[in-house]
Amino acid sequence: MHMDHDSAAPAAETIAFDDFLKVDIRIGTILSADPFPEARKPSLKLRIDFGDAIGVKKSCAQIAALYDAESLIGRQVAAVVNFPPRQIGKALSEVLTLGFADGEGRVVLFSPDNAVPNGSRLF
Predict the structure, then answer these.
(1) Any bridge partners for residue 87, and if so which?
(2) In 3D, which of 49, 54, 46, 47 has the Cα closest to residue 82?
(3) DSSP secondary structure letter of residue 110
(4) Backbone dihedral region of 74: left (phi > 0), alpha (psi from -120 to 50 degrees) or beta?
(5) Is residue 98 in some structural domain?
(6) Distance between CA atoms of residues 38 and 78, nearest Å
(7) Whole-model pTM?
(8) Is the pLDDT of residue 1 over 50?
(9) Is residue 16 part of a domain?
């Protein structure tokens, strides 16, 4: 799936609200973050706890440019939890951790202002 990270890109085509609801975006807490040197872009392998209903999932996230592994433990992040798993090199990515590109194209994580229960769904 190609994502356009360009802030000057026009808005995407109009969709129905039901289409938005098909994308299941949840909050989880990062339990562990490990280097992923085999990745093409600076990446980390994350284990994220999404609460009882969804459980702990793995994510390969291109976030190593701005974040070191130790600083991520205990941080809440948003992720799409209902994509099929993707094999990325030797790692399996079960959820898509969400972020925005900064002015230099580095990924900035998307987190809630205040703590919310793991598994809370974006609406």
Answers:
(1) 92
(2) 54
(3) -
(4) left
(5) yes
(6) 24
(7) 0.90
(8) no
(9) no
Residue 13 within a domain: no
How many structural domains are present in the chain? 1
**Residue in the block written with tokens 């799936």:** 1
Burial 28-43 (b: 16+ CB within 10 A, else e): bbbeebeebeebeebb
- Assign residue 49 the CATH number of its domain: 2.40.50.140
Ramachandran assignment for 79, one of left (phi > 0), alpha (psi -120 to 50 degrees), beta (any other)? beta
At 2 the pLDDT is 45
pLDDT, average across residues 47-53 = 97
In the structure, what pLDDT confidence band is assigned to residue 6 with cuts at 50, 70 and 90?
A: confident
Residue with the larger pLDDT of the pair 4 and 119: 119
